[in-house]
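Class prep. Write one:
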Amino acid sequence: TALLALCEQLPTATLKPALVIGVPVGFISVLESKAALAQTSVPQILVEGRKGGSPVAAAILNALLVLAWNVKEFRI
């Protein structure tokens, strides 16, 4: 999976992601890739088990944007 490939490259990567949303779905290497992400020091949002997918990732990203927008409005 793309998440597993990312986790394999993180130890030697020059640039590290600020956040990884790790919510792949399916049956092939999903649990392994989520376990690999959990072992990294990169900030992450991780869904345990086989649940996840692009709708979950989009909902998480949307919620983060709403939170960021509310914080910005609060400071004004």
